[in-house]
Automatic annotation (TrEMBL):
It comes from the Bacteria. It comes from Streptomyces katrae. The chain crosses the membrane at residues 44-65, 181-204, 210-228. It holds the Pfam family Bestrophin-like. The lineage of its organism: Bacteria, Bacillati, Actinomycetota, Actinomycetes, Kitasatosporales. This is DUF4239 domain-containing protein. Keywords: Membrane, Transmembrane, Transmembrane helix. InterPro entries: DUF4239.
C-alpha cells in the first residue's frame, strides 16, 4: 500500500472520528446548555496540555530526522572511503591494483543490490558484506610496498579501510527503528488526550468549529505519520538512499 494512501486514510479516519464524536455529543447536550460556562481552569489546562504535546511532537520529529540524516552520512562516508581506496591504489602494480578495485566493486555491488533491500526491512548488515570487506582489507594489508611512493600510500589506504569498516557498522546499527515502543505509546496516548480535550470546551456543530476540529485532528495524524515515516532511516518513503555509491561508482550497473 502506498505511503501517501496510508497518510490520506489516517488523516481521513482521524477527522471522521472527531467529527462523529462531536456530532453525537452535540445531540446529547440539551438545548439549554451554555458553552460560555466552561470553567477557566479547563481552558487553561487544555491550552497547557496542547503546548506540552506540541513540544513532545517537535522533539520526536527532530530526533527521527537526525537519525535519518546520520544514516545518510554513514552511507556517504562509506562510499567516499571506498572511492578513495580505489583511486589511491593507482600507485600499486597493475595486478594488485586490479585485485583491489575488483574487490571494491564487488563490495559496492553487493551492498547496493542485495544488502540494501535487507536494511529496508530493518535488518542488520550481513556476514557476506563483512567477508567482502575483509577481502579488501587483505588486499591492502598483505601487499608489501616496493618503493617509497607505494610506502607513502600504504598507511592512508589502511586508514580508509578502517573508515569503511566503521561506517558499515554504524550503517547497520541505524537500520532499525529509532523510536522506542514506550515513546510511541506516549505519542499516541498524548494525541488521544489532546484531541479529546477539545470536547471539554463544548464544541458545537457550527461549520467553523467542525472545520477547526477536523483540521486539528488531521494535523495530529499527519505529524504522527511523519514521525513513523522517518523512524526507519532505510525503509520508507523519506529514507536514506544509496546515491553516494551511485555517484562514486558510476561504472557499475547498480540496481538501486
Amino acid at each position: 500500500m502506498s505511503e501517501w494512501l496510508v497518510l490520506s486514510l489516517a488523516m481521513a479516519a482521524a477527522c471522521a472520528v472527531v467529527l462523529s464524536i462531536a456530532f453525537f455529543n452535540h445531540r446529547r447536550i440539551g438545548e439549554d446548555d451554555d458553552p460560555n460556562q466552561t470553567p477557566d481552569v479547563i481552558e487553561y489546562m487544555t491550552m497547557m496540555i496542547g503546548v506540552i504535546y506540541a513540544i513532545v511532537l517537535g522533539l520526536a520529529i527532530a530526533g527521527v530526522w537526525e537519525g535519518r540524516g546520520a544514516a545518510q552520512e554513514y552511507v556517504r562516508q562509506e562510499a567516499q572511503a571506498l572511492h578513495e581506496i580505489s583511486v589511491r591504489s593507482q600507485v600499486y602494480p597493475a595486478e594488485v591494483r586490479g585485485r583491489i578495485r575488483a574487490d571494491v566493486d564487488a563490495y559496492v555491488t553487493y551492498v547496493v543490490d542485495t544488502e540494501w533491500k535487507r536494511m529496508a526491512d530493518g535488518e542488520d548488515v550481513t556476514e557476506r558484506s563483512g567477508e567482502l570487506l575483509e577481502k579488501i582489507r587483505r588486499d591492502v594489508t598483505d601487499y608489501e610496498p616496493q618503493t617509497d611512493h607505494e610506502g607513502q600510500a600504504y598507511q592512508p589506504l589502511v586508514d580508509q579501510v578502517a573508515i569503511v569498516d566503521d561506517a558499515r557498522n554504524a550503517r547497520g546499527q541505524s537500520a532499525g527503528a529509532t523510536m522506542p515502543g514506550v515513546v510511541w505509546f506516549g505519542l499516541i496516548t498524548g494525541a488521544l488526550v489532546t484531541v479529546g480535550l477539545i470536547f471539554t470546551l463544548q464544541i458545537r456543530r457550527s461549520f467553523r468549529e467542525m472545520l477547526l476540529a477536523g483540521l486539528f485532528s488531521a494535523l495530529i495524524a499527519f505529524l504522527l505519520f511523519l514521525i513513523w515515516d522517518f523512524d526507519s532511516p532505510f525503509g520508507r518513503g523519506i529514507s536514506a538512499t544509496a546515491e553516494p555509491f551511485l555517484a562514486q561508482f558510476p561504472h557499475l550497473d547498480l540496481k538501486s
